[in-house]
Amino acid sequence: MVEDPHVQVGAGTVTVTGTGSAEAAPDLMLVSVGVECRAGSVQEAYAAAGGALAAVGSALRGRGVAPADLRTAGLSVRADLAWRDGEGQKLVGYVAAGSLLVRLKDLSSASGTVSEAVRAAGDAARLNSLQLVLSDDSAIRAQARDAAWEDAFHTAGQYAALASATLGRVLSVTDQRPASGPVPLAGLQRTSATESLAVEPGENRVDAAVTVTWELQR
């Protein structure tokens, strides 16, 4: 009896799930730069956040970021509540926040661009997230699928030999693309909000899986 959950041997067939991966250096940085401003009124907080966000956008455009690579992610205002002994929660002002999603295609200058954007908003700046990704992963994904196929083929051939048979024609192929998780930043060091980030791109891995059923020939 076959114990491997990725292998099924039936009447005249063998079904195997193969896995593979490939790696490539990322060529695109995705950044979310936000601002957060507190003030005594909704209008003041909203205006301050809008001004800080505009300063961030201006700094990014000044560094050569194209308008198509900038997208506003929203601007919100909420009440700022604080607990005071004997009084409970009290309204102490309002907080307005917003963010810009940025695509940086030149990794060699991305560190300075992010730092300039953060510097433009001062203490209101928030660096929400930063990811290094592949702008086009089709080629590396194809390599991962090749590796997954070879893994399935090798394993199926081994089980066919154990069954005193050989692999015949392929009866079915199912792409079992693994669920994608967050892509980690390969290397990031932050010294302060106004100093440059030291970014090490490293490599991103793409995984693939394929389930194949072969006919067994005896």
UniProtKB/TrEMBL annotation:
Gene3D superfamilies: Protein of unknown function (DUF541), domain 1 (3.30.110.170), Protein of unknown function (DUF541), domain 2 (3.30.70.2970). Pfam families: SIMPL. It comes from the Bacteria. This is SIMPL domain-containing protein. It comes from Arthrobacter sedimenti.
